Amino acid sequence: MKLSEVALKYLKKASLPSSFAPDRYQTELNSVIKGFDAVDKPDVGILGIPFDTTSIWSGRRGSSMAPEFVRRMFQYLGSYEPQLKIDISNGIGIVDFGDVDVMHTSVEETYRRTETVSYEIFKSGMSLAIIGGDHGNTYATVKALCRATKGKVGLINVDSHPDVRESHHGEISSGTQFRRLLTEIDNHVEFDNFVEIGMRGWENSAANQKFLDDNGIRCFTAAEVKEKGISSVIKKALEIVKEGTDAIYLSMDIDGLDICYAPGTAAPTPGGLTPSDYLTIVYEVGRQKTTRAVDIMEISPPFDSKDVTSIMGAYIVAQFFGATKRRKEMG
Ligand SMILES: [Mn+2]
Known about the structure:
This protein has a single domain (5-330), classed as Ureohydrolase domain (Arginase, Chain A), CATH 3.40.800.10. It is built from 11 helices and 12 strands. α8 packs across α9 (230-242), α9 runs parallel beside α10 and α10 packs parallel to α11. It is an alpha/beta fold. The strands form 2 sheets. Strands 1, 2, 3, 6, 7, 8, 9, 10, 11 and 12 form a 10-stranded mixed sheet that branches. A two-stranded antiparallel ribbon has the order 4-5.
């Protein structure tokens, strides 16, 4: 596919490592992912946002390195999943757009570039797996989808925190993006079409809970997921985000996972979701007709242990590819 000169100016090429031990009977994930200019009408693409400047919460920055690390983990993955029985080695066009050429000292300019690039990609009708970066970047990509979509956008955030701070230390931060999306984007993400899953932990505030409650925002706590099971929670979440909307956006802060599964993040939080919860969410949401994006935010490689958090990021991307293929098959 072709991008405009403006969008091309804001992109940096990213490379994929070659597979560890190539096998003629297995198509490696790496070889399934093509350059965006090599595929006419791709179904789904990868976009990295190596920007963690608004991660002011904990001093545990580093998510700007996640696009590189997550891509590096692709070398361990193939193209078939036996539980889903999905083969992404054929019948689906997957491309890599590389990374947004971010400006580390300018939040506004980085968001502008990110929005410009992702708007153009969404406008073409394809879906995106976005690799952050800190969670603040979600503001720019959801805004891009809102602009590219005629109607309204339904939004799911899987996270241990609601990220609806009014301002954070007077700044735009990785904790403010959802309030901004709900209150600053004209008429596009309604309170009634926003769901949060995985809330828990002592990093939270009663004032932000009041904002959620006052506006009737449905939050499924981590305890609720454990009690009711992830499938029933997703079913209810999908009803909320589908009601009257034209597109669905799934945002995943990696810290929604339990601390033991995702140590490599800015705010690792105990009592959380499991990797299989996450993969079920990605598959069930990803295969919906109107789903356009998943983002995987807040993976911080410098704080990771044996790359497990980055591997989880690679799994989410592959799972979204699988869900996209299923969506395509269902028409
Ligand atoms: Mn979080």
